Amino acid sequence: MIVIPLKEGENIERALKRFKRKFEKTGVVKELRSRQAYTKPSVERRTEIKKAIYIQQMQREED
């Protein structure tokens, strides 16, 4: 359960923004979307490899 303590005199919009950020970091929505459809393990592996290759290329470009 996410708890956002309100600071004295804090704007409700700012507190709501903090809540949304915390909620997004938990990854609940992302997991729900991924569970809507089954993906084969081979497809998951392939996407992980593609992500890893992409990250490596980005790191090489930085240097």
TrEMBL record:
GO molecular function: structural constituent of ribosome
Superkingdom per UniProt: Bacteria
InterPro entries for the chain: Ribosomal_bS21, Ribosomal_bS21_CS, Ribosomal_bS21_sf
Record GO biological process: translation
Spans through the membrane: none
Alphabetical UniProt keywords: Ribonucleoprotein, Ribosomal protein
PROSITE patterns: RIBOSOMAL_S21
Cellular component, GO annotation: ribonucleoprotein complex; ribosome
Family in the record: Belongs to the bacterial ribosomal protein bS21 family.
UniProt-recorded name of the protein: Small ribosomal subunit protein bS21
Gene symbol of the encoding locus: rpsU
